[in-house]
Design a protein that fits this description.
Blueprint lengths: L27 E11 L8 E11 L17 H35 L31 E3 L20 H5 L30 H7 L6 E9 L3 E8 L2 E8 L5 H11 L15 E3 L7 E5 L4 E2 H9 L9 H20 L12 E3 L5 E3 L5 H4 L5 E2 L5 E2 L6 H6 L4 H16 L14 H6 L2 E3 L7 H10 L10 H18 L1
Antiparallel strand pairs: 1-2, 3-14, 4-5, 5-6, 6-8, 7-8, 9-10, 10-11, 12-13
Helix pairs in contact: 6-9, 6-12, 9-11
């Protein structure tokens, strides 16, 4: 029940109990004094409550509660017990009232004008005066033990850009029914196309080497390279490996690179073709998307290496597009398992597509860690059940999507930057989550926290998230 000046204030009623165990070696009656001290920063407002009770133990009854007959105490004792219960209720009321007082004072001291943005980036969410104060403090991390199940209705926020962007992408605005109840979701691990033998996919996608023209190197990792080139006069992105790559990594490269084979959705990027003339250096060819990798694009915007204006509407719109792509994968019974900004690309008109995670470990080594096995995993995007039990389901993708929302609102800051990967499961198990980003509206942060609920069945479904984000996007446009 301790509430220190730097700790978290309870947002709901909390109770405590004191157990005094009898040894059973003798019969005795002991007076117990309970001293309750409630204080705030203003010492004059300290409240002290003292009350007594009798602890009775009987010989031969140890380590258990003793139920005495009603006539044992007599009428005066009954009155004393009633007084004790009344005092306990009063004490709890004082604690809760004091906590509320402290919390209100802290809220009043918060700045309600636009906060300083990450790395002085001008393209962040704006945070004007709220209709109600923020519900989460400004600490390093937030807890979600007492989150309410129903998100607040979105309110309009000022932005630096009008909704002209919605006109360019009105073709993907779809209406989905969001059920009022969260449905129970099966915890059986779902299909993963990376686990299937890619040989049949490769044979279908194989084209002659003469059809592919490599032009210039764009990115290079430890064992992979990405080129810009041409395929039948079409500008494409070409992924390949280095000569030193092991057979295991080569097989992983082909399995992950062709995982989207056979899928057709405007928010999913599929591989165009494969060339296997040199089996140790296969070529995977993809459509070239204007601005390239979403994470690199947002980081460049944050670091002012790219002068593109990214408004609140655009970022929410990106989230909706990623969600639509993820919904399509789930409709095909595919659990993506690695949803992150690094595994998406963005076009000139801010159209976003989910890609495979081929070469992601190589090009984004700080996002993957090996814990307990030889496989590198996106530890800080993974749900608790994935970390502990290696269980992957639709709700684990929902968790990762919550981290993607956090990435978008921070222009791709690194999540849990100061948490050791080996401590992530303990960190999440104790209820800690990513804190509310600077300038992020309360309503959007609420969506993230619902995605990070510990019980997978309590997390929202994708159609519920889509309905809410569409409503939030509409509120932004209506305000402008």
């Amino acid at each position: 029940m301790n509430i220190s000046s730097s700790g978290l204030i309870p947002t709901s009623v909390q109770t405590f109990s004191i157990t005094m165990i009898c040894t059973g070696t003798k019969s005795a009656e002991t007076m117990v004094l309970i001293h309750l001290y409630v204080s705030t920063k203003e010492k004059a407002n300290a409240t002290i409550v003292k009350f007594k009770r009798n602890k009775i133990c009987l010989k031969g009854f140890g380590n258990e509660s003793i139920r005495l007959s009603p006539n044992y105490f007599g009428s005066s004792s009954d009155f004393a017990l009633g007084s004790v219960l009344t005092l306990i209720t009063l004490a709890l009321f004082v604690v809760i009232a004091s906590a509320y007082y402290i919390k209100r004072k802290k809220r009043e001291q918060e700045h309600t004008y636009m906060t300083a943005l990450y790395d002085s980036n001008p393209h962040m969410f704006l945070r004007p005066r709220f209709a109600r104060p923020p519900s989460i403090g400004s600490g390093s991390y937030a807890t979600i033990d007492d989150l309410q199940k129903n998100p607040p209705s979105p309110t309009p926020y000022a932005t630096s850009d009008c909704c002209r962007h919605s006109e360019n992408n009105s073709n993907y605005r779809v209406s989905y029914y969001a059920s009022s109840q969260v449905m129970l979701i099966s915890q059986v691990s779902l299909g993963d196309p990376r686990l299937a033998d890619p040989s049949q996919r490769i044979s279908t996608l194989t084209v002659p080497r003469s059809a592919i023209v490599i032009e210039c190197l764009q990115e290079e990792g430890i064992f992979g390279k990405i080129y810009k080139g041409k395929y039948h006069q079409r500008t494409v992105t070409i992924k390949t490996t280095k000569d030193t790559v092991s057979k295991r990594l080569l097989n992983l490269f082909l399995a992950e690179g062709t995982m989207m084979f056979g899928l057709d959705h405007k928010n999913v990027l599929n591989v165009l073709c494969v060339n296997m003339d040199n089996p140790t250096k296969p070529l995977l060819v993809y459509p070239c998307i204007g601005r390239g990798n979403l994470k690199r694009f947002l980081v460049n915007c944050r670091q002012r290496k790219d002068n593109t204006t990214v408004s609140t509407q655009i970022l929410v719109d990106m989230a909706i597009q990623i969600l639509l792509g993820l919904m399509y994968l789930h409709s095909k019974n595919i659990c993506y398992k690695d949803m992150a900004a690094r595994n998406a690309v963005v076009g000139e008109k801010f159209d976003v597509k989910i890609t495979d995670n081929c070469l992601s470990r190589d090009l984004f080594p700080n996002d993957y860690f090996c814990i307990g096995d030889k496989e590198s995993k996106p530890i800080k995007w993974m749900a608790l059940e994935s970390l502990v039990y290696d269980q992957w389901t639709f709700p684990t993708d929902v968790w990762a999507f919550g981290v993607v929302l956090w990435e978008l609102s921070t222009m791709c800051q690194q999540p849990y930057a100061d948490i050791d990967p080996f401590e992530m499961s303990t960190h999440l198990r104790t209820g800690y989550r990513l804190a509310q980003p600077l300038g992020c509206p309360d309503e959007l942060y609420a969506v993230m926290t619902y995605c990070w609920l510990q019980n997978p069945a309590d997390r929202p479904q994708l159609n519920q998230l889509l309905a809410y984000l569409n409503e939030f996007y509409t509120a932004l446009c209506r305000f402008v």
